[in-house]
Structure formats: C-alpha cells, structure tokens
Amino acid sequence: MTSTALYPFDMARTPKTLDRFYSVIPAGGIGSRLWPLSRADAPKFLHDLTGSGQTLLRDTWDRLVPLSGEQRIMVVTGRAHRAAVEAQLPALTDENIVLESEPRDSTAAIGLAAAILERREPGVIIGSFAADHVIKNHALFLSAVTEAVAAADAGYITTIGISPTEPAIGFGYIRSAGPLDIGGAPSALTVTEFVEKPDLETAERYVASGNYLWNASMFITRADRLLEEIGRSQPELLAGLLELAEAWDDPATRGPAVDRIWPNLTKIAIDYAVAEPAAAAGKLAVIPGYFDWDDVGDFASLAKLNSGGRKSDLAILGENARVLSDASSGIVVSQSGRVISLIGVKDIVVVDTPDALLVTTSENAQRVKAVVDALKLTGSSDVL
Amino acid sequence: MTSTALYPFDMARTPKTLDRFYSVIPAGGIGSRLWPLSRADAPKFLHDLTGSGQTLLRDTWDRLVPLSGEQRIMVVTGRAHRAAVEAQLPALTDENIVLESEPRDSTAAIGLAAAILERREPGVIIGSFAADHVIKNHALFLSAVTEAVAAADAGYITTIGISPTEPAIGFGYIRSAGPLDIGGAPSALTVTEFVEKPDLETAERYVASGNYLWNASMFITRADRLLEEIGRSQPELLAGLLELAEAWDDPATRGPAVDRIWPNLTKIAIDYAVAEPAAAAGKLAVIPGYFDWDDVGDFASLAKLNSGGRKSDLAILGENARVLSDASSGIVVSQSGRVISLIGVKDIVVVDTPDALLVTTSENAQRVKAVVDALKLTGSSDVL
Fold it and tell me: Where do the Nucleotidyl transferase domain residues begin and end (chains A, B) (predicted)?
C-alpha cells in the first residue's frame, strides 16, 4: 500500500495499534490573552483564528478524523458550551461528549476521558490534543501521531514536541536525550525534563543546543498507563476519576457521581501531575514534530499567524471587515461590522467587538491577561 | 467705572461703538480632521470638545453675549443643522438665523449677514467669530474685541491675531508692522500680509521675529466697509449678496431669491476675498490677542487641549466613558458606551463611535482628512 497526502505513513505497519486509538479533545480554557475576542461565552476554540472559515475546534476534529474516525473522538468541555460544540461537530455522539460542571484543569479532564474509555475498552490508546491550536501540515502531524501511538503501545507516556523555528518565550520546552528503540516509532527520543516558558536568553540557548522541543500539550498514551501515572502522583484524584468512570455509563448514577465527586477533584495541570514525574522516571517519550504549530497564545501570535510572518503587513480577521489602513501594520480583528480606520500605527493590535474594544501593540500582547483581571476587579465583568 | 472680570474694559469709553455692535457666528464646516467624531450630521461645532458640558457653539454664544447681548447675535448655518442649533441656543430669534441651502464658503456666509444687518441698521459694526473655536480667557477676549470694534469704527477691516505660544504649523499667520494711532484701540497694528500654514522652519522664524500672530479667523468691521471690500475683489458676489439682502426680510421674496441667487454665488474664503487684498492696501488692522485660543483643528490639538499639555497623560472625552488604560497616553473619544482598553500605546488617538472607529497617533492627526476622502471614494459615505 502506498502513502497518500492524508495517510503519509505505512498503513500496513500500523493498523493494529491505530485500531485501538481514540482521540480526546479537551475543549476548555477561555484564552484570556485573546480578550475581548475570546471570553467566557465565546472561548478561543469556538473562533476562526486562521481565516479558514471554521472554528479551531472543528479544525482539530477534521485533523483527527483520519487517525481515529468520527466515531472515536471524545470531547471534554464545559456544560455551557455543549450546544456550540455540538453545532460545530454534528457527528459527535452523546457517548463521546464529557461535560464538566466546572473547570478542574487538564489532569481531571483528560484523566476522566481515559478512565471512561479504559472501562469501555481495556487496552485503549488515547491521544489528547487541545481544541484551540493551529497546525497547517496535516500529513506531518498524522505521521508523528502514528509513531507516538506505537511508542504509547510500548508503554511510554508519549508526547509530540515541536521542532522550534525560533527562540519563542511563549511556549514551554521539552528536553530530549538519546533515541529510544521502539518498533514503529523510529524517531522516538527519551525526555529528561519539561521546562516552563523561558526568558529570551534561555530560549536562545535551548534552540541552539538542538536538544529542546516546544511543548504542544499533546499526550499519547495507553489509558491504563496514564491512570497509573496519575495514581502515582495524585492517588486521591485517581480514585475520584475511577469512581466517576464506574458511574458514567449509567444515566441513573452519572449525575449524582458528578455532583459529588467532580467539584472536589484536585485542580492540577497534566504537565505537573503526569509529564514531569514520568520524564524524571524515564517513562516519557517524545516524537519530534516538524509541522507548523501554534497555540495562538496572544495577539502577537495571532498577527504573525495571519500575516504570513511579514511584520510590515496588516492582518485582518473577521467576516465583512471594513478596514481602511494607511501606513499601518499589525492585526485588526473586526467583529462589530463598523468601519475601522488606521493611520500610521505600527505593530498595532485592534480588537473590535460589539461591547469592548482593545488597542495595544504586539509587544504588549502578553499583558492583555492583566487587563482582563483588572476588568474583573473594577466591575466590568459584563464584557468578559 | 471700574473693570470687572466680565467687562475688563473701560465702559465709559466704548458704549457708543459697542451699541452698534452685532456678533455673527458662521456655523459651518464639518471638521473632517476630527472624523469620525465630526461628520456631516454632527459637525464639530455641535460637540463638546473641552469637557465643559456644552457644545462649542454654545460656548461661542456665551462668550459673545457680554459684548452684543442675546438679541444681537446672528448665526449663519446649514438648513440641516437648524434644529440642532436652535436647541443649543434657545434665545436665538428667527430674524437672527440665516440658513444656507448649501455651503458657499465664508465670504458668502459672512457677507450675507453683513448685507442683511447693514440694510436693517446702517452703520452697524459686525464681528464674525467661528462657532467651533476654543477660548478659555473670556476677559482678555472681550478686551481685544472692544479694541477691535473701535478700530472697525475708524474704517479698518480688523482682525484679532493670537500671540503665538509655539511655532504651530496648523495655523495661518498674520504679519504685523507698526502701530496704528486709533482712539480706543491702543494696541492696534497694521497688517502687511496674511500667510498660509507654514512649514516648521518658517513657523520658527515667524515666532522668533515677534512680528507674526496666529490667524484666528476673527473679523470685526463696519458692515458697509466689508461689503465695499467684497465688491472690490468680487463684484458679482457683492451684487448677489445685496440682492439677497434686499429680498431677505419679506417672506414672500426671500425663498425665491435664495433659490435663484445662493447656489450661484462664488465660493471663496474671506481671507482671500477680503483680508489679503485689504492688508495689501493698508486697510487691515490687527489687535493682538493674549488669550488661549485653539481652532481644535485635529486630534493632536484635541489631545493637547484636554490633557493640560502633558504628553504623558491620557485624555478621555465622552459621557460615561469606560476606559481602562495601562501605560498609555494620548486621547480617547468615547461615544459608543463600549469598554475601551488601551495597553502600552503612546500618543495614541482612539475615536470610538457607534459605526466607525479611528486609531491613529497625534503625529498622524493631520492625515485624517485624507482617510475621509478615501472613504468617500470607496463607497463608505454612510459613516461620513
């Protein structure tokens, strides 16, 4: 069998493991650094941030269908977003949507999906992919996930680390060491460390060393192995997840279990609960990803993504945007239908929504979150 | 009789001439450089640009009442603005409002007022003051006008030139020469030249010389003298104005005369038709004005006016403005009620109206007019 653009890997080599593969999409997180575009009732994953004509959530779904099929993609999201998520993903079945009554961070979200799926299908391999990241080259993504599934089948908590194209300070990094010898995963490397967003000097050192990859929050693992790792660092959290999973598929028991257990689960990111301890114990593998990837963490990133990297350009996002620019660059997000005129403003960020306007620069994009916090404190929560 | 704050001049010296004085307010001009705040249906003079709580037109009226009384102020404005003008000036009588069916520039507007008033009251002295300028010190203004009225009575076309506080490039200049010896107008000087907005180098030279004053478009003159000067440079225009004035005060004849004559009057600014020729002929006098004056010609000027001159401040204009600023300076004009958040933008100009948004910098404020022209060409006249 030959490769195609959609299936660039050797199908003959992988059907057995991919047959056991299930995609999980945690669709949470408002994306406060993208306020006033992203907000509580319109989080980042429900926006079209690339001009593709569809939301990031739908892009994510479409990227995963070739790997696991429409029937094997689970979405974990907030109750408030159920209708919007189902509208975006008409093929999503009731058994594949997990609704959170309140956010309990990524270990609870992904761990619950793992526990439910392992109970339904022992030995399942899951891959967790954020709902609001942007990947342009699907073929290279699919190829990397396929290797990751093989490494997961061999028992590793496996991540895909993006080969850095610049010393970015907005991402965490993964430090890799020597190659692992895993059948079906020829490019798998051991991971020695997960590190937080560095300063510029450190980032430059990381990139120059050739040993660091960007942490794209992708985790591919056997569900039982993930639960085992959660149990090692967070035994109470694991107990809660197993109890929830036990009650999940019976309509009579799910509601009471959620009400009783979910609000008390420890809030902890999966990087801390699983990835860092597993890396320290030598149980974490990484597949380098050579595809374009962005978490669109702030407006500087959004501007870059939409201007093809040219600093002199003005990127415009928004249907029917009416923008008149004279000697200006940066990004305009137009959601209000108003005429927007820019004169002589460089590297500007203008986000125009019906009830709130943001004007800043790419350089200050990371400070947007602080403004959101200030708005909360000053009684302007109506626009958050 | 002693001076007071409102009447700082010697009343005993001036009653005769001031009794003959009539104020004229040409209320025209959209103020395109203040788009999208100023526009066809909401011209500059109908805005509160100083945070005083009332429009510039009303400020102008209030400034003139101590000179001529409410009964002797004539307003020349467009038909479309009649209701708004009358709402601002409840004391304005029907005989004191002159409505233009279309704009024909300042010579026609002021000349028609002069012709009507001269016919009603031969020997009347008129003073023309733009509806959309800002003057803070009323006492010094009144003092200068009182001297100007004396000079006008002596036969001079008289202007008030503002003593420059900086080498502004946004104003025209008046070149003065030696003193005139006019009773009641001790500071009157002859004018040798009216000059257009200069470049910075020229402006610096002007200010350093001490011989130049800013042209504030104030003209005080006997009405008959003004008409004489119009006739000298624009005889056809004068004929039209006299014919209109003849028909004006009879309801049966006014309408037909306006329809027939007004649209055909030559469009020419009073600076060209009257001031420059009169200056060349030695018939123009200037009274130096030492009061704060601004024509609020663009957003840089508006920002300066509202920040007390401090470049580090963010000026905010607009009732119930909801502005959150972090390390930003410049000016925000809020007319939409939306939350406006600025982060790290310096010398910025943000004008937020329900249907149009402008983002620029003080440095680029003069280019706003070009954008308005571009909007006309690109079919966005709905927001002009």
Answer: 24-307
Q: Compute the radius of gyration of chain A from its Cα atoms.
A: 21
CA distance A223 to A114: 5
Give the mutation candidate from B359, B366, B367, B376 for the A interface (greatest A CB count, under 10 A). Answer: B359
CATH top-level class of B11-294: alpha beta
Q: SS3 for A321?
A: coil
pLDDT at A170: 87
User: Residue A88's pLDDT is what?
Assistant: 97
Q: What is the DSSP string of A35-93?
A: TTTSBTTB-GGGS--SSSSS-HHHHHHHHHHHHH-GGGEEEEEEGGGHHHHHHH-TT--
Q: Cα–Cα distance between B41 and B35 in angstroms, integer? A: 12
Which of residues 111 through 140 in chain B touch A, CB cutoff 8 A?
none
Domain with CATH 3.90.550.10 in chain B: 11-294
SS3 B378: coil
Distance from CA of A343 to the nearest CA of B (A): 5
Residue B147: CB partners within 8 Å, gap ≥ 6? B9, B184, B185, B186, B187, B188, B287
DSSP designation for B39 = B
Number of other CB atoms surrounding residue A4 within 10 Å: 11
Measure the CA dihedral B96/B101/B104/B107, to 10°.
Answer: -20
CA–CA min distance A101, chain B (Å): 30
Closest to B326 in 3D by CA, of A299, A352, A371, A330: A371
CB atoms within 10 A of CB A118: 21
Cβ contact, residue pair A367, B344, below 8 Å: yes
Residues of chain A above pLDDT 70, percent:
95
Tokens of B49: 């640009």
A42-71 residue pLDDT tens? 999 999 998 888 999 999 999 999 999 999
Is there a contact between A151 and A182 (Cβ–Cβ < 8 Å)?
yes
Q: Are B365 and B301 in contact (CB under 8 A)?
A: yes
> Can the peptide bond before residue A90 be classed as cis, meaning omega within 30 degrees of 0?
no
Q: What tokens appear for B211 in the block?
A: 């011989």
3-state secondary structure of A283: coil
Tens-digit pLDDT profile for chain A (384 aa)?
Answer: 333 444 444 444 445 568 899 999 999 988 889 999 999 889 999 999 988 889 999 999 999 999 999 999 999 999 999 999 999 999 999 999 999 999 999 999 999 999 999 999 999 999 999 999 999 999 999 999 999 999 999 999 999 999 999 999 889 999 999 999 999 999 999 999 999 999 999 999 999 999 999 999 999 999 999 999 999 999 999 999 999 999 999 999 999 999 999 999 999 999 999 999 999 999 999 999 999 999 999 999 999 888 876 767 899 998 888 999 999 999 999 999 999 999 999 999 999 999 999 999 999 998 999 989 888 888 788 888
pLDDT one-digit tens code per residue, A184-241 = 999 999 999 999 999 999 999 999 999 999 999 999 999 999 999 999 999 999 999 9
Task: Using alpha carbons, select from A291, A63, A282, A287 the residue that is nearest to residue A161.
Answer: A287
Contacts of A330 in chain B (CB under 8 A): none
